[in-house]
């Protein structure tokens, strides 16, 4: 008898409002650079304290204040951004962590998030 395993995936993400940004927390690797496996608790701590996020959706008022953002938006949907550890409102949907952050929480945009970690 074959058992089919179905993984639940988020089907409806929250819609960020105002100057909020919805971000996904990138997956934390299962092993260290030397090949040792990470404990589940270690992976959880790394995910919670991450400084790299993936921008999914921007609220309708993000970067609209020309006095605060005279050069325009700091990021766009699809960017990897750096922000402070533990920033934003944390939510989980079907076991996957997401964050809702303010538009001025973004500190930098990076092309390749690999190699970035909290110091």
Could you give the order of strands across the largest sheet? Answer: 4-5-1-2-3-6
Q: How would you state the average pLDDT, rounded? A: 88
Tally of contiguous helical segments: 1
Number of E-state strands: 6
> Helix and strand succession?
EHEEEEE
Number of domains: 1
Oligomer: single chain
> If you compute it from the alpha carbons, what radius of gyration comes out, rounded to the nearest whole angstrom?
16 Å
The CATH C-level name is Mainly Beta
Strand percentage, roughly?
Answer: 25-35%
Which features does this protein show?
mainly beta, 10 Kd Chaperonin, Protein Cpn10, Chain O, globular, six-stranded antiparallel β-sheet, 6 strands
Structure description:
With 119 residues, the protein is mainly beta. It has a single domain (20-110), classed as 10 Kd Chaperonin, Protein Cpn10, Chain O. It has one helix at residues 40-48, and strands spanning 20-24, 52-58, 80-82, 89-93, 96-102, 108-110. A 6-stranded antiparallel beta sheet has the order 4-5-1-2-3-6, with no helix packed on it. The chain starts with 19 loop residues before the first strand and ends in a 9-residue tail after the last strand.
């Amino acid at each position: 008898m074959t058992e089919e395993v179905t993984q639940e995936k988020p089907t409806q993400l929250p819609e960020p409002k105002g100057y909020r940004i919805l971000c996904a927390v990138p997956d934390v690797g299962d092993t260290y650079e030397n090949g040792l496996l990470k404990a589940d608790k270690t992976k959880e701590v790394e995910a919670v304290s991450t400084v790299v996020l993936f921008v999914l959706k921007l609220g309708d008022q993000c970067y609209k204040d020309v006095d605060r953002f005279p050069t325009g938006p700091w990021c766009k949907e699809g960017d990897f951004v750096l922000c402070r550890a533990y920033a934003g409102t944390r939510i989980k949907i079907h076991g996957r962590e997401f964050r809702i952050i303010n538009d001025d929480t973004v500190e930098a945009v990076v092309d390749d998030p690999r190699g970035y970690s909290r110091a």
